[in-house]
Each structure stands twice: as structure tokens, then as C-alpha cells.
């Protein structure tokens, strides 16, 4: 592997260079990040504390909230701090760390969403075999494989990034470090590198999205044989999942399936799936899920009762 010798730091241009707009960026994304932390941590604590939320569906929801918390934390704090900084400098090692975090938690989110679709398929289409298919042991194995797969994917991206030579401008026209902005600055023919990035990231996003859409079509088709009440409950759950899938995969496919050229909308699209989706996920799952809302009420009631007894 070739480590870059000529560049020790990069300068991020951020979402905007307008001082007034930077103040707006600071306020807006501070609110978004705070909401993301509160919402996802509340889901994590609720699932861990509740005896009624022990099914595989909530097991995977727990990990989705955990990944969303880490994903947002790897991006949002830097964006918030840089909004008030005159010069947004990021060191070479910090930049590569951010690339790793973005790829690791992004791919982990994809894998968890796929596992959630598998769980819903087994629950709705194979109800008699569901306890066997989605046993506790099977769920743990699937999550461990997801962590391993995400790590391998992220290391592949880092190996590619380490081989990029930088000898000209160190200005990154983005608010974070990612492969496409770095490829644009590289002093080499990036055609092959870009194909590898598109094949790696773009293929994972696109193929997973197609698999998810097909699985939900099959699930919705199978609901015709269920009772009206069962159909309503399954539709509510699946609708939440489909909303999350579209919100996450749409921007993700757009970013990682085009050549290493920067479009004006790239930064906004990246914001949507790295910061916006982790913020929206808790709202989507809690507002449309009666079991989660009831468990949160019980947890709140227990907390208030224990405080009043002290």
C-alpha cells in the first residue's frame, strides 16, 4: 500500500461558504443531531428494558438504532463544528478515519435493513417456521456476519484511498471525506479506481435495494391470505420499513452509482442519508408502531414512579 507523503491535511469547503448560512447550518444540524441521539437512544433503552419487545423484529430495530447513532455521530459533529470555523481543516488520518466510518456504518445500515426484510418475510410468509428460521442464535449469527461484512467492505475502501496520490489542491468540495471527493483530487488516472468504488458501493446499494423491493412485493402479495386485522398490522409494519428503505437507498444509490464527478446536489443528497435518515428513523418506527409506543409509556411510567418513591 502506498501512503501519501505530500498531503498531510485537507480543507473542507462545507455545505456553504456564506457566513450567515453557516450559522443556519450550525443551528439546524445541531437540532437534527440532538433529535437523532435522543430518538435512537430512547429506542435502544426501550427495547433493552422491555420484556414485550423481545422478538427478532425488535432485535434488529435495536441494531438499526445503534447503527444510526454511530452513523450520525461520525458525520454530524464535524459538520456542526466546522459551521463556526473559519478554516475547516481535517488531517489526512482523520479524513481516512471518516471514510472508514462512513462506509462501515453505511454498509451496516444496509445489512440491517436487509435482515429486517428477511425477518418480515419469514414472519408473514412462513409463520409456522418463523420461530425456527429466526431463532435467537440465527439472529445473532446474522448480525455478527453483518459486522464482519461491513468491516471487510470498509477496509477495501481504505485500501483504495491509501493508494491515491495527492500532489495538487487539497480543497475538498464537501462537508466530509468520502471516496468520490478524494478521487477528484487524486493525481492519477482514476478511471479504474472509480469503477472499483462504483462496483463496490454502488453494487451493494443497488442490489440490496432491488432485493428489498422484491421481498416487500412478495410480502404484500402474500397478505391477501391473511385476516383483515393481521393484514392491517403487517401493512403498517411493512409501510414503515419501505419508507425507511426508500429514504436511505434513493440518495445512497445516486451518490455511489455515478462517476467521480461532483454535482451541485451531491452534498445535500449526502446530508439526507447520513444525517436526515438517522433522524427520521426513530420517528417513523415509533409513530407507526403501537408496541414500541406502549413500551415507551411503560418505561416512562416506571421512571416517574421510581422517582416519586425516593
Automatic annotation (TrEMBL):
Keyword Manganese: no
Domain of life of the native organism: Eukaryota
Matches recorded under SUPFAM superfamilies: Family A G protein-coupled receptor-like (SSF81321)
Compartments it resides in: Cell membrane; Membrane
InterPro entries: GPCR_Rhodpsn, GPCR_Rhodpsn_7TM, Olfact_rcpt, Olfactory_Receptors
Subcellular location, principal: membrane
Residues that span the membrane, as ranges: 24-45, 57-80, 100-118, 139-162, 195-223, 235-256, 268-287
Function: Putative odorant or sperm cell receptor.
Domain G-protein coupled receptors family 1 profile span(s) in chain numbering: 39-285
Protein name: Olfactory receptor
GO MF annotations in UniProt: G protein-coupled receptor activity; olfactory receptor activity
Amino acid at each position: 500500500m502506498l501512503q501519501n507523503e505530500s498531503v498531510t491535511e485537507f480543507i473542507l469547503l462545507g455545505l456553504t461558504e456564506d457566513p450567515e448560512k453557516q450559522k443556519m447550518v450550525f443551528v439546524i444540524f445541531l437540532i437534527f443531531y440532538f433529535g437523532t441521539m435522543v430518538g435512537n437512544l430512547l429506542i435502544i433503552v426501550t427495547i433493552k428494558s422491555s420484556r414485550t419487545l423481545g422478538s427478532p423484529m425488535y432485535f434488529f430495530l435495536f441494531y438499526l438504532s445503534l447503527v444510526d447513532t454511530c452513523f450520525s455521530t461520525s458525520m454530524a459533529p464535524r459538520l456542526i463544528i466546522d459551521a463556526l470555523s473559519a478554516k475547516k481543516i481535517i488531517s489526512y488520518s482523520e479524513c481516512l478515519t471518516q471514510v472508514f466510518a462512513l462506509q462501515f456504518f453505511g454498509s451496516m445500515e444496509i445489512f440491517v435493513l436487509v435482515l429486517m426484510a428477511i425477518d418480515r418475510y419469514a414472519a408473514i410468509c412462513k409463520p409456522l417456521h418463523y420461530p425456527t428460521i429466526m431463532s435467537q442464535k440465527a439472529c445473532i449469527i446474522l448480525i455478527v456476519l453483518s459486522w464482519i461484512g461491513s468491516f471487510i467492505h470498509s477496509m477495501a475502501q481504505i485500501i483504495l484511498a491509501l493508494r491515491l496520490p495527492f500532489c495538487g489542491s487539497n480543497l475538498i468540495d464537501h462537508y466530509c471525506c468520502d471516496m468520490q471527493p478524494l478521487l477528484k483530487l487524486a493525481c492519477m488516472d482514476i478511471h479504474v479506481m472509480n469503477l472499483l468504488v462504483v462496483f463496490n458501493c454502488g453494487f451493494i446499494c443497488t442490489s440490496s435495494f432491488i432485493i428489498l423491493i422484491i421481498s416487500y412485493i412478495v410480502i404484500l402479495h402474500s397478505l391477501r391470505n391473511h385476516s383483515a386485522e393481521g393484514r392491517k398490522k403487517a401493512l403498517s409494519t411493512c409501510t414503515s420499513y419501505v419508507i425507511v428503505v426508500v429514504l436511505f437507498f434513493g440518495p445512497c444509490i445516486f451518490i455511489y452509482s455515478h462517476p467521480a464527478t461532483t454535482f451541485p446536489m451531491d452534498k445535500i443528497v449526502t446530508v439526507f442519508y447520513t444525517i436526515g435518515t438517522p433522524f427520521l428513523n426513530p420517528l417513523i418506527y415509533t409513530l407507526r408502531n403501537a408496541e414500541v409506543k406502549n413500551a415507551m409509556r411503560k418505561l416512562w411510567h416506571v421512571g416517574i414512579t421510581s422517582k416519586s418513591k425516593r
